[in-house]
């Protein structure tokens, strides 16, 4: 019976992720993030959804100085390279920080739909690319001419460069992470 319940819960979670703009991933504070939580998180990330982590049952955790900060750091280590995911500690039983969770979910939605001017994107991206040394192809360094944000529902970016077919996947991932950081920085300026 337990396997059937788990199976149908996963099917419903996949359908919910498909229909959502922002996914609120509820984690049990006592158990921590499980393999199933990581699978659902990676599904949401692959589909380009905004994600907010809600750590429930926070009232049951024994607290010391910086417990929340340490717990959040541990979560972000497990979710690497997605270290910019917001985390809200809640208690559904005591109704603690429920409104904060909804406000943060709305912020995530607004950040997903934020458009960054090409000039600002290029300023930050070109510095990030220089920091990660562009790969060399056939004796020539790959040069990004400019970056622009595409008009899509999910934040997407187009990189215009020489030798685009020779760029490795890892390099593209580093560039995408830098673009997301630009979006986050733009949100707070």
How are the secondary structure elements laid out?
Blueprint: H1 2-19, E1 22-28, H2 35-46, E2 50-56, H3 67-78, E3 87-89, H4 98-112, H5 118-131, E4 136-137, E5 140-141, E6 144-149, E7 157-161, H6 169-187
Parallel strand pairs: 1-2, 2-3
Antiparallel strand pairs: 4-5, 6-7
Helix pairs in contact: 5-6
Question: Top keywords for this entry?
Answer:
single chain, GMP Synthetase, Chain A, domain 3, 48% helix, 6 helices, Rossmann fold, alpha/beta, 2 domains, 7 strands, elongated, two-stranded antiparallel ribbon, 189 residues
What features would you describe in this structure?
By secondary structure, this protein is an alpha/beta fold. It has two domains: 2-112, P-loop containing nucleotide triphosphate hydrolases (Rossmann fold); 118-187, GMP Synthetase, Chain A, domain 3 (2-Layer Sandwich), CATH 3.30.300. The protein is built from six helices and seven strands. The strands form three sheets. Strands 1-2-3 form a three-stranded parallel sheet, sandwiched between helices. A hairpin with a 2-residue loop joins strand 4 (136-137) and strand 5 (140-141). The radius of gyration is 19 Å and the shape is elongated. The relative contact order is 0.11. The mean pLDDT is 82.
């Amino acid at each position: 019976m337990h396997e059937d319940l788990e199976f149908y819960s996963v099917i419903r979670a996949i359908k919910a992720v498909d229909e959502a703009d922002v996914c609120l991933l509820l984690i049990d504070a006592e158990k921590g993030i499980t393999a199933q939580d990581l699978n659902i998180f990676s599904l949401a990330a692959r589909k380009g959804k905004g994600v907010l982590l809600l750590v429930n049952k926070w009232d049951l955790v024994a607290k010391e100085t910086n417990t929340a900060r340490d717990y959040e750091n541990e979560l972000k280590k497990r979710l690497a390279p997605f270290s910019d995911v917001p985390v809200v500690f809640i208690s559904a039983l005591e109704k603690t920080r429920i409104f904060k969770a909804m406000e943060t979910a709305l912020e995530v939605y607004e950040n997903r739909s934020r458009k960054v001017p090409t000039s600002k994107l290029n300023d930050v991206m070109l510095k990030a690319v220089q920091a990660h040394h562009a790969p060399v192809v056939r004796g020539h360094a790959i040069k990004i001419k400019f970056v622009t944000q595409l008009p899509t529902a999910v934040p997407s970016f187009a990189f215009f460069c020489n030798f685009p077919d020779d760029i490795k996947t890892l390099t593209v991932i580093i560039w995408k992470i830098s673009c997301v950081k630009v979006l986050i920085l733009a949100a707070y300026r």
